[in-house]
Amino acid sequence: MDMLPQYMKLLYQEILNVYKEAEDLLEKKGNTYRLCYAKETVKEYTRNILLEAKWVNERYIPTFEEHMFVAIVSVGYPLMIMLSYVHQDDLVTEDTFKWVSNYPPIFKASSLIFRLMDDIATRKDERERNHVASSVECYMKQYEVSEEHTHELFSKLIEDNWKVINKESLRPTHIPGPLLMSPINFVHVCDILYTGSDNFTHAGKEMIGYIKSLLVTPISV
């Protein structure tokens, strides 16, 4: 903690507090193993974010394959899905966390869809600031193709990975069906955030309406 700059200490302490509170709650149910998996996923996420920061500082543009290997983790979906299981009911077992830790196809497909849709929608804004090279830039540089061609290819990749998600969610598996909904629901968010424009950075009336309907406006009964 003492090695951190002052502006990071408060944030890091709050993260530690959250995990301590989670540990206390899980200990009462004998489920502290869940937090061990969550912590390892946070560490892996952080390592990949730091690698992207290194690329920015060195002005390094990785190959498309190298970029996607890191982006599947740094996009944050595996971390969010892992955390969504920590306090769930008895449907979640240690096998669930082992399954998540191995990045099954449905996780990789969800992460890839998010990364590609995000990069297509945000590339213009990100070029104007010091940001890690997007998947669009990496692909264009490596294969010497136009942005239009890259977008067409990425649209096909997104479609193909939706097929992977459909296949993985329908085939027999030892993972209970309700638990498969987390990666599916997370990737559905992409359509709201990045179809047509960057609604995450520039939230308009439609996005504000979604947020209000979810968190503010009561549901009529």
From TrEMBL:
The keyword Signal belongs to this UniProt entry's keyword annotation: no
Record-annotated Terpene synthase metal-binding domain positions: 1-163
Matching Gene3D superfamilies: Farnesyl Diphosphate Synthase (1.10.600.10)
Lineage: superkingdom: Eukaryota
Enzyme Commission no: 4.2.3.57
GO molecular function: (-)-E-beta-caryophyllene synthase activity; magnesium ion binding
Cofactor(s), names only, from the UniProt record: Mg(2+)
Keyword Transferase: no
Gene Ontology BP terms: terpenoid biosynthetic process
Any Pfam family hit: Terpene_synth_C
Keywords in alphabetical order: Lyase, Metal-binding
Enzyme class: lyase
Protein name as it appears in the record: (-)-beta-caryophyllene synthase
Organism: Helianthus annuus
